[in-house]
Specification:
The chain is an alpha/beta fold. It has 2 domains: about 190 residues, NAD(P)-binding Rossmann-like Domain (Rossmann fold); about 210 residues, NAD(P)-binding Rossmann-like Domain (Rossmann fold, 3-Layer(aba) Sandwich). Helix content is about 35%, strand content about 15%. Helix 5 links the parallel strand 5 and strand 6. The mean pLDDT is about 95. The protein binds ligand SAJ.
Length: about 425
């Protein structure tokens, strides 16, 4: 079998199928990933080298950028990126390219499963036509399904094999074949009635998060006006043992899932003349958080008789969430850009991100043992576990904390400014 796209979703799948005894090829256009995988090395935090090298050395697992490997495949799983383009519309070119590549090397009996997060209809409107235009009959010569990925980077408890997996087949026979494939590696399969339903399940999961994060970000803006600490209120509400699920305000929505997936859904509904109001509103609120944080920083400096212009600021954390090294869509980048535009002098400290070279920002992290008192203010954007909260609170002159990391920390809390 072939897994197309061996990133944070594809590589764990490759390992699971190899572990189940499949002959697996990881197909990717990135020669570096191909080289590392063929060398038995892992480049994904959640995948150990020992998960890979034994399968490579016994010849069961390899990687390639040669699409002719598809001609030998009985099963193909597509795990390619689905970003947004510059106008925040879905960009499914990687899915289209992968499907065209498969169709060029297609043979009777192949099962093709799309895992990339996409709008409802993609599997039936893009994959099925391309995989049947050469005379193959759906459900007989070719089997097509959608199964959303649920990889949670860094999650120690839920890995690919023990996370329930939703499956929707283009026909009942397609579902049967896709179920037979995944039953070798997934403990709990959840069949649904169609690929559209499976595509929608994934979008609901992540839209649920984006909308609830938007809600608590607005609760933070309301609490500011009421003189209430939103984190205290949410933590207290979270003691309700039923009917409540805590989300916490922050500097904005980062990562390559939550800010993006809901917009795939709202885009599709716009094409059906329906406005997905919750999604649009949550996106508006979440996108406004970086600007809101910059205003909080200006207020904090102002309380010390300082302007943003000329102030030396230390940004604590640029990754999009705690204890990860990924800066994709990180609100820190937007916040830093805005502060630079207003004339601030910016440094950052992030033990997981040695340097940032994007968004017009060229910066390297200062060491973790930096003297926090040598800046006019410290701004906490990411609540990395490695930050020494007690020393930061002791040394810093002013702290703007967007993550409530000083909860329970002793010290002079008068220098703290929240959301
Ligand atoms: N965030 C908040 N407040 C919250 C939770 C998150 O501001 O209460 C922010 C984070 O700081 C981050 C962004 O939202 O910038 C996204 O955070 P996330 O916790 O949703 O993490 P992700 O983006 O890694 O989401 C992934 C998703 N996994 C998959 O798509 C398979 C998501 O479905 C998972 O629920 C999430 O991990 C998780 O639970 O860790």
């Amino acid at each position: 079998m072939v897994v197309m796209g061996i990133g944070y979703v594809g590589l764990p799948l490759v390992v699971e199928f190899a572990r189940a005894g499949f002959r697996v090829t990881g197909y990717d256009r990135d020669p570096e990933k191909v080289r590392l995988l063929n060398a038995g090395q892992s480049y994904i935090g959640d995948v150990e080298q020992s998960d890979i090298s034994p399968h490579v050395s016994c010849g069961r697992l390899d990687a390639s950028d040669d699409p002719t490997v598809l001609a030998e495949a009985d099963a193909v799983v597509v795990c390619v990126p689905t970003p947004l383009n510059k106008t925040k519309d879905p960009d499914i070119r990687f899915i289209v390219d992968a499907t065209d590549t498969i169709s060029r090397h297609q043979h009777p009996g192949m099962v093709v499963v799309l895992e990339s997060t996409t709008y409802p209809g993609t599997t039936n409107e893009v994959l099925v036509p391309k995989l049947t235009e050469n005379g193959m009959t759906l459900g007989q010569d070719v089997f097509v399904a959608f199964s959303p990925e649920r990889v949670d980077p860094g999650n120690e408890k839920y890995k690919t094999h023990n996370t329930p997996k939703v499956l929707g087949g283009a026909t009942p026979r397609c579902l049967e074949v896709a179920t037979a494939l995944y039953s070798h590696i997934i403990q709990n399969l959840v069949p649904v009635s169609s690929p559209e339903a499976a595509e929608m399940v994934k979008l609901l999961e992540n839209t649920f998060r984006a909308v609830n994060i938007g809600l608590v970000n607005e609760i933070a803006m309301m609490s500011r006006r009421l003189g209430i600490d939103p984190f205290e209120v949410i933590r207290a509400a979270a003691t309700k043992p039923f009917g409540f699920m805590p989300f916490y305000p922050g500097p904005g929505l980062g990562g390559h899932c939550i800010p993006i997936d809901p917009l795939y859904l709202s885009w599709k509904l716009r094409s059906l003349k329906y406005q997905a109001r919750f999604i649009d509103l949550a996106d508006a609120i979440n996108s406004s958080m970086p600007g809101y944080v910059v205003e909080r920083i200006a207020d904090a400096l102002n309380s010390d008789g300082r302007a943003v212009k000329g102030s030396e600021l230390l940004i604590a954390g640029v990754a999009y969430k705690r204890d990860v090294s990924d800066v994709r869509e990180s609100p820190a980048l937007d916040i830093i850009s805005r502060l630079l535009e207003r004339g601030a002098l910016i440094s950052y400290v992030d033990p997981h991100v040695p340097d940032v070279n994007e968004h017009g920002i060229e910066l390297a992290s200062v060491p973790l043992d930096v003297d926090f008192g040598s800046y006019d203010a410290v701004v906490v954007i990411t609540d990395h576990s490695a930050f020494d909260r007690e020393r930061m609170l002791r040394q810093a002159k002013i702290i703007v904390d967007t993550r409530d990391i000083f909860r329970g920390v002793e010290g002079d809390r008068s220098k703290l400014h929240g959301l």
